[in-house]
Amino acid sequence: MSETELYFPIKTFLEAQDFTVKAEVQSCDVVAVRGDEAPVVVEMKTALNLQLFYQAVDRLLITDQVYVAVPRPKRGVPAEAIKLCRRIGIGLLVVSGSGSVDVLADPVPYAPRQNAKRRNGLMSEFHKRLGDLNTGGSRGKKLMTAYRQDALRCSLLLARLGASRVRDIRQATGVERAAIILRRNVYGWFQREARGIYGLTDAGLVALETSRSLILQLFPPTFPPVAHDKSTKVELSPECHDPDQST
């Protein structure tokens, strides 16, 4: 459906609401006027794209009643597109092959309700993370999350002290959710030796080996406490190289 094919269904739709409609007025695709009300401007395109939104935002300098209009997509209009229209205060019309017009969004001021749970989750993750070990815009790489940092804390302690009780791990590392991390074993680093006692798997030792430089950045030299015996399993030194900086 071309832009010109969109015009008459939109014109008919607006005229049914007592608007007087004219096309191509001062570079606006469609202008509709009803009495002393603010004019309605409709910008048409064969598909939703940035150019259409640029035009619509520009028309907001003329009137608050701005719509964009496109043919109805076969797979429907993405929810994100409708959300964007509402966010910038423009309306959205879709025209079907039969000529019917549906209003998916009206040009009203956007007043979003913030999601307190998501905000709290964001701030909690931000404050729990040590340093800034990720690179913005990264795709397909392992991220250093607060959860992963806590798991590394537990792993490092077990590597130094051997199998330990959960409460001792929690107390020594300061990781309050140590029991959850050990039980869930998301990364496969831990193994249950006995009730309430966990040790480190080979995968856990490998993770420590490949995360040496990150561990040196995250944790002070005094963490974790040195084992009372001399059978330390993992020794970390500043000269160690981490081949996987994204871990």
Short summary of the structure?
With 247 residues, this protein is α+β, with helices and mostly antiparallel strands.
Topology:
Elements: H1 3-15, E1 20-25, E2 28-33, E3 40-44, H2 50-59, E4 65-71, H3 79-88, E5 91-95, E6 101-105, H4 116-128, H5 146-161, E7 164-165, H6 166-173, H7 178-184, E8 190-194, E9 197-200, H8 202-209, H9 212-218
Parallel strand pairs: 3-4, 4-5
Antiparallel strand pairs: 1-2, 2-3, 5-6, 7-9, 8-9
Would you write up a description of this structure?
37% of the residues lie in helices and 18% in strands. The protein has helices spanning 3-15, 50-59, 79-88, 116-128, 146-161, 166-173, 178-184, 202-209, 212-218; strands at 20-25, 28-33, 40-44, 65-71, 91-95, 101-105, 164-165, 190-194, 197-200. A six-stranded mixed beta sheet has the order 1-2-3-4-5-6, with helices on both faces. The chain has a three-stranded antiparallel beta sheet with strand order 7-9-8. The longest helix has 16 residues, at 146-161. It is rod-shaped and about 80 Å long.
Structural class: alpha+beta
What general outline do the C-alpha atoms trace?
rod-shaped
Mean pLDDT: 85
CATH homolog superfamily of the largest domain: Winged helix-like DNA-binding domain superfamily/Winged helix DNA-binding domain
Strand content: 15-25%
Helix content: 25-40%
Number of strands: 9
CATH architecture identity of the largest domain: Orthogonal Bundle
Give the distance, in angstroms, between the N- and C-terminal Cα atoms: 50 Å
CATH structural class of the largest domain: Mainly Alpha
Q: Give a short account of the largest sheet.
A: 6 strands, mixed
Widest sheet: strand ordering: 1-2-3-4-5-6
Q: Kindly report the CATH topology of the largest domain.
A: Arc Repressor Mutant, subunit A
Query: What's the total helix number?
Result: 9
pLDDT < 50 runs, ≥5 residues: 226-247
What Rg, in angstroms, do the CA atoms define?
A: 30 Å
**Integer tally of domains:** 2
Order of helices and strands: HEEEHEHEEHHEHHEEHH
